[in-house]
């Protein structure tokens, strides 16, 4: 059975492992300082929030989310990262993590919850297509440095 809760201080080692797995999927490596700063923000509620999925008490999935202003509506919720350990994929952890973020967004009165994924992420898109609508938007990143 998968249970969802806020990330806890003792989750740090498993959170690091899971976030590294997420980042590896996107061919990204971050310096140790970024892990420390992100963890500090997650634990302090400093604009960044996270949930963990647990099976038999072990952290097997994570999600990070934040709220930000919008010119069209009140503050919206952005689900930034979602990752579930391969050993438990397909057992509902991803869906439950998204639903936990949706509940947090509703509690804050956010009129929108959205996220991004790579077009080739077929496994995740199968889940996302059952939970949300894709509106055809594409993301562009301007090179800042």
Automatic annotation (TrEMBL):
<dbReference type="InterPro" id="IPR016181">
    <property type="entry name" value="Acyl_CoA_acyltransferase"/>
</dbReference>
<keyword id="KW-0808">Transferase</keyword>
<protein>
    <submittedName>
        <fullName>GNAT family N-acetyltransferase</fullName>
    </submittedName>
</protein>
<dbReference type="InterPro" id="IPR051016">
    <property type="entry name" value="Diverse_Substrate_AcTransf"/>
</dbReference>
<dbReference type="GO" id="GO:0008080">
    <property type="term" value="F:N-acetyltransferase activity"/>
</dbReference>
<keyword id="KW-0012">Acyltransferase</keyword>
<dbReference type="Pfam" id="PF00583">
    <property type="entry name" value="Acetyltransf_1"/>
</dbReference>
<dbReference type="InterPro" id="IPR000182">
    <property type="entry name" value="GNAT_dom"/>
</dbReference>
<feature type="domain" description="N-acetyltransferase">
    <location>
        <begin position="2"/>
        <end position="145"/>
    </location>
</feature>
């Amino acid at each position: 059975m998968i249970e969802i809760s806020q990330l806890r201080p003792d989750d740090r080692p498993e959170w690091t492992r899971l976030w590294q797995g997420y980042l590896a999927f996107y061919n990204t490596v971050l310096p140790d300082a970024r892990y420390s700063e992100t963890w500090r923000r997650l634990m302090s509620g400093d604009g960044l929030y996270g949930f963990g999925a647990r099976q038999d008490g072990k952290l097997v999935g994570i999600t990070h989310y934040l709220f930000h202003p919008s010119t069209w509506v009140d503050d919206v919720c952005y689900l930034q990262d979602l990752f579930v350990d391969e050993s438990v994929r397909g057992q509902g952890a991803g869906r439950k993590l998204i639903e936990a973020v949706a509940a947090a967004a509703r509690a804050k009165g956010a009129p929108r919850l959205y996220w991004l994924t790579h077009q080739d992420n077929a496994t995740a898109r199968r889940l996302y297509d059952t939970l949300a609508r894709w509106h055809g938007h594409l993301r562009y990143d301007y090179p800042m440095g």
